[in-house]
Amino acid sequence: MTSLRQLRFLVALAEELNFSRAAAACHVTQPTLSTGLKELEDTLGIALAERTKRSVILTPVGHAIAERARSVLAEVRDIEEIAERSRGLLRGTLRLGSIPTIGPFLIPKALPLLRVRFPDLKVYLREELTEPLVEGLIAGRLDVILIALPFDIGALKTEFLFEDEYQLATPLSSPVAAKERVGGDELADMPLLLLEKGHCLQRHALTAFPNIELPRDDRFAATSLNTLISMVEEGLGTTLLPQVAIDAGVAKGHSLNLMPLEGASPRRIALAWRHTSAQADDFKLLAEIFRMARNQTGRPSG
Asked: In angstroms, how far is CA 92 from the centroid of its own chain?
């Protein structure tokens, strides 16, 4: 009979394509994982993976079953959430995912508030880009995620938190540094230093002015806001920084100029969860706490 444990092993192997890493992800030994997968193959009467000394490749039917197994495991997690919720709101374990342009600036302010109101809650944080966060939520690896919209999230439920505006960060020597604020027309000839592809902030920054095509500086792509700030400080270009990061102090101690962007469209910060989750009320409480935390970081953007 197929077990949930065997399905977890298969999903881990599909994600890692390596027996050692899949075993580590499941917190078991490699022989235990291999034996479990062999038992699953024997039960189903099919080969789920092609094994060589150097690699693992899932068979087409192995891929199809792994996808269905993700959905099954997510449904099981929802059942567990129903049981947890019956013992009280926001208790037990919360697996929270966040994009790196929000989490470091908002979550440290939110955690003390959570501890006061929900002392029995244990929060496990995963920081990833938006696409793997959404995938992890759908697969049941995460319970709720903190993301920036717009982004295609399918049928996930969302709770809007606040709008996050931008400021233009320039070197002190920039010709526009003396201005109090700038508009989109002035950015049209000012290539922007941005985060590398995959960060939703890159796309959001480039579409801050929907009617204006903002140029990007293709000579460089950063992996973090701190790197972008250092590049600007060295006089290598300009960038857009989100207000939530500025209010949290990301630019403090750096010699650069910040100015508001007139008429820019803000990104929308939201919580997202599976529509089948039994913790919708919990997540709405969590949203309230994140709004309180946003107010504590400085001027709220919306």
From this structure: 22
Q: How many CB atoms lie within 10 A of CB 79?
A: 11
Superfamily classification of domain 87-163+267-296: Periplasmic binding protein-like II (3.40.190.10)
Which residues have C-beta within 8 Å of that of residue 219, sequence separation ≥ 6?
none
The answer to whether 229 and 207 have CB atoms below 8 angstroms apart is: no
- Structure confidence by residue, pLDDT tens digits, 47-88: 999 887 677 889 999 999 999 999 898 888 878 777 765 555
Q: In the structure, how many helices (H) and strands (E) does the chain have?
A: 11, 13
> 33, 27 in Cβ contact below 8 A?
no
Q: Three-state DSSP class for 209?
A: coil
User: What CATH topology corresponds to 4-79?
Assistant: Arc Repressor Mutant, subunit A (1.10.10)
d(CA 222, CA 33): 38
